[in-house]
UniProtKB/TrEMBL annotation:
<feature type="transmembrane region" description="Helical">
    <location>
        <begin position="15"/>
        <end position="34"/>
    </location>
</feature>
<dbReference type="InterPro" id="IPR001460">
    <property type="entry name" value="PCN-bd_Tpept"/>
</dbReference>
<keyword id="KW-1133">Transmembrane helix</keyword>
<keyword id="KW-0472">Membrane</keyword>
<keyword id="KW-0378">Hydrolase</keyword>
<dbReference type="InterPro" id="IPR005311">
    <property type="entry name" value="PBP_dimer"/>
</dbReference>
<dbReference type="InterPro" id="IPR036138">
    <property type="entry name" value="PBP_dimer_sf"/>
</dbReference>
<dbReference type="Pfam" id="PF03717">
    <property type="entry name" value="PBP_dimer"/>
</dbReference>
<dbReference type="Pfam" id="PF00905">
    <property type="entry name" value="Transpeptidase"/>
</dbReference>
<feature type="domain" description="Penicillin-binding protein dimerisation">
    <location>
        <begin position="55"/>
        <end position="212"/>
    </location>
</feature>
<dbReference type="InterPro" id="IPR012338">
    <property type="entry name" value="Beta-lactam/transpept-like"/>
</dbReference>
<keyword id="KW-0645">Protease</keyword>
<keyword id="KW-0121">Carboxypeptidase</keyword>
<keyword id="KW-0812">Transmembrane</keyword>
<protein>
    <submittedName>
        <fullName>Penicillin-binding protein 2</fullName>
    </submittedName>
</protein>
<dbReference type="InterPro" id="IPR050515">
    <property type="entry name" value="Beta-lactam/transpept"/>
</dbReference>
<feature type="domain" description="Penicillin-binding protein transpeptidase">
    <location>
        <begin position="276"/>
        <end position="606"/>
    </location>
</feature>
Amino acid sequence: MSSNKIEKINKTKKIAILFMIIFLFLLILIISVFRTITEYRHMPTLQSEKKELSVRGDIISSDNFKIASSKKLYKASIDTRHLAEDKKELFLQLFSIYSKIPYKKLKEKLEKTKDKPGNLVLSYNIDSRTAKNLKELAFKLRKLNVFISRKVKGGKILRGLSVRESGEKRLFSYEDTLTPVVGYISKFESENGTTKVKGIKGLEKSYNKELNESKDGILQGNRDVLSYIAFDKNSLIRKRIDGATLNLNIPLKLQKNNEITLDLHKKKLSADEIIVSIMDSKTGKVLTLASSNRFNPEKIRQKDIPSLNVNAIEYQFEPGSIVKPISISLVMDKNRIKKNELFFAYNTKGKANSKGEFPKGKYKIGRYTIGDDHRFKKHYLTLKDVVIYSSNIGTLKIAQRLSGPEFYEGYKRFGLARKTGIDLPYEKKGVIHSIRQYSAGDRDGEDNIFKATDSYGQGITSTFMQMMKAYTVFNSEGYMSTPKIVSYLSHDNSKYKAYDNKPEKVISKETAERMKQLLIQTVEEGTGKAAKIDGLEIGGKTGTAQIARGGKYLKKYISSFFGFVSDGKNSYTIGVTVMNPNSTGKYWYYRYASSSAVPVFKEIIQNLIKLNYLTPKNDIISKN
């Protein structure tokens, strides 16, 4: 074979091999491209999203102090697999300085992850300021190569110090102030894994839905080369909306002053508890609802458990003589008491003492004997005597002039045996007897024992706040106002009321005015003398009742004084109830409202004067 032919064959082989190589390369390229297209790739997303956690709304006093508020909490964590071994000490030292978490505590946490390296939460309880500082630290730590990258399928990753929103914490700035009314909370985990809170008692409970009506903020858009969100027309921006704010009718300064007053008197009287409230008589605005038994909602202890309830609405007790103005005014409203009428005191058995006072009156209804606590120098009492000296016999004889249905409906109209409507949860209603029981003997004109005892507050139960509401009638021309603690709610730049507070007509203006004057005379001349302050119109009624338990009366007492005060411009209804004051030994007389509740009532008025809610005027009493 010639050399030319051999050379031609070799050339053809070379071209064939070259084409085969090119074909093989193209085949490999095609397969590679196909696999790249069809297989899942860990490509970084072009979209970025940032959420801003919303928090529960605030509770603010009328003088603009934050009683309760929420702060955001942040979680700081690291992946221990990315922490450089030779930089551990540096990390612990710097993180301890920035977070103020003890170095020893952090080191112990890190040591526990030796056998199981991975995600480690260093703290769940970091505040906003510390979180900001830690985010700056995270940037510095990367520069210092404290964290190293790890190989994973498809490349390398680097995880440093992570600081993220983890939830919220409820703060009570003034510790036990306004408790138990403000209530307390518990924590729960939301659907997105953040720590949230919900109300368990008090205002926190009754307005839980509104306080938690919030939306997280969202920033969403394309990422730039530095992984920041670049905003354009397609970006999503939703501002953070926190829960509604409760704006109270209660001013913090007045509340605090009254709580200090209660603390001093509780100690003096050795009482179980003292409750006080002040209401605007015409509007129902609650300016104070205070108890001597309080707690710190952030640090509830075992001994605080009895103080968690709002006894002003949850504790039912026999009100005693503070009910007398209610039963008497119902008869007055029917025009069944004659002008200048006299009522027999049933005190003719026995001689008068050295002061000229006859024995205490006794009156029998069936097998029951009812007595008066006051001795009189006469056998016939005026209506004024019955009220200002708190005659049981005079009151029950007047109450018999009402039929069973009139008595029942009248008590219900005054708010007994029904909830007041105050904006607090777990309110009790109290108990009165039935129409049938009150009607027994009506046809024959016989005395009714239920009307008799209930007319002076024995045999029925009420709550402190029911009596507060009832007493607004005598100081607002016969209208009764519903007590309200929250003035209005503010949410997302809007304000609204959560209720419609319309006064109820209970008795006529004329009847209310007559009873008002009798209550003023009770303070001027009767059992409420210790409440008198010159230059103010003050009226009220004392009540001392035994505590009943298990169908028996204990040698324990509840002393109350309910009434009103006015300076001619401002007018307030005030109630004071002292639970189980000292009733034995040297200070046995503290059981009586005139020696326990009335002095507290007077000091509460003095607090109103001191803080400019009242201005005494020299001629105000002479006008009456």
